């Protein structure tokens, strides 16, 4: 298939590009490079430096670089904390941006989309593991934008026949194990890249946001899923909506809870560096534990996380940091 990957120069998008080209698909990337990196672009794909807020940019790319069989849409703002302070920014980038994509697809006749949704759509868990039927009550505006987009997708399916796959990612982490993705995220706020920056000497210490949670070691537990696993989920989801002519909403998680302390200790062991850490108060809005069941992705897509052990997450990420920063 010929696929337009919007946000394909970003951290997850570049891994999705790799999985799609490996699966034999032809890829064109559309990215405004606001957080995506030029170094994540490769000669085997076309590239348009464009913005989803410019409707004509999208229509022109879909017309001139196509015809496309599908869009994979990963372009979004994703800082949950910031979304509570600057919701306007998130409304425009995430909601208006996605509506532009959907409308441009209608105008140019593209009828399939794979969309990056998020576990942030669920909010505080009422039970664990989280399945797709768990009530969706997002705790932050970022999660709200993702949930609203899922609802728009359902309407565009009903009214315009656009088939979608909404993939609810849990915590994306890790890097391509063969070192093919070298771009590091700028100013990361997520746990593993922060730990890596401390290990690399770019930050003084890790702040552990609370050690008094109701979890085995008192620190927050999350479901970290390797980006290579997430990427293969996109390939399988696109195959599914194409073959079944049916839309899809699935969790993509490892089904394993890893605590902050476990991640930190594994990183100390693998990097052989000290990684100073200090406990600070809880971060507002952080639930104690979140992890998925990915049973639906398994039964419908034959997907499961294969590279998401804590060791593989840390080792592949550290390898990317060593390479990009020329450490050791
Ligand atoms: C993980 C754990 C923190 C940093 C966020 C978004 C979510 C999704 C993924 C994108 C928690 C602890 C973290 C640090 C720490 N985003 N932590 N010190 O909050 O689970 O999810 O990213 O789609 O929408 O909310 O991820 O990596 O920030 O935190 O102690 O410096 O690590 O408290 O327990 P989170 P995270």
From TrEMBL:
Subunit structure: Homodimer.
Source taxonomy: Bacteria, Pseudomonadati, Spirochaetota, Spirochaetia, Spirochaetales
Keyword Hydrolase in record: no
Class in the EC hierarchy, top level: isomerase
Superkingdom: Bacteria
Protein name: UDP-glucose 4-epimerase
Cofactor needs: NAD(+)
Residues spanning the membrane: none
């Amino acid at each position: 298939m010929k696929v337009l990957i919007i946000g394909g120069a970003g951290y997850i998008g570049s891994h999705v590009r790799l999985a799609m080209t490996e699966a034999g698909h032809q890829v064109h990337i559309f990215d405004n490079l606001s957080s995506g990196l030029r170094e994540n672009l490769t000669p085997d794909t076309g590239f348009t430096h464009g913005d989803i807020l410019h409707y004509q940019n999208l229509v022109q790319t879909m017309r001139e670089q196509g015809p496309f069989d599908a869009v994979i849409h990963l372009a979004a703002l994703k800082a949950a904390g910031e979304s509570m302070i600057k919701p306007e920014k998130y409304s425009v980038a995430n909601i208006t941006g996605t509506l532009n994509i959907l409308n441009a697809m209608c105008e140019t006749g593209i009828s399939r989309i794979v969309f990056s949704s998020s576990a942030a759509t669920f909010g505080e868990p009422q039970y664990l593991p989280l399945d797709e039927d768990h009530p969706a009550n997002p705790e932050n505006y970022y999660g709200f934008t993702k949930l609203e987009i899922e609802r728009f997708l359902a309407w565009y399916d009903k009214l315009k026949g656009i088939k979608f796959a909404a993939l609810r990612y849990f915590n994306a982490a890790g890097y391509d194990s063969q070192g093919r993705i070298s771009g590091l995220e700028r100013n990361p706020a997520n746990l593993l890249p922060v730990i890596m920056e401390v290990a690399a000497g770019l930050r003084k210490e890790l702040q552990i946001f609370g050690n008094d949670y109701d979890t085995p070691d008192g620190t927050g537990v999350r479901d970290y899923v390797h980006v290579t696993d997430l990427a293969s989920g996109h390939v399988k989801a696109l195959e599914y909506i194409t073959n079944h002519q049916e839309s899809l909403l699935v969790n993509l998680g490892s089904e394993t809870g890893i605590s902050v302390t476990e991640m930190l200790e594994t990183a100390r062991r693998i990097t052989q560096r000290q990684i100073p850490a200090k406990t600070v108060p809880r971060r507002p809005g952080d639930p104690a534990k979140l992890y998925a069941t990915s049973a639906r992705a398994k039964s419908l897509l034959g997907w499961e996380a294969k590279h998401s052990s804590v060791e593989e997450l840390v080792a592949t990420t550290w390898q990317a940091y060593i390479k990009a920063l020329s450490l050791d």
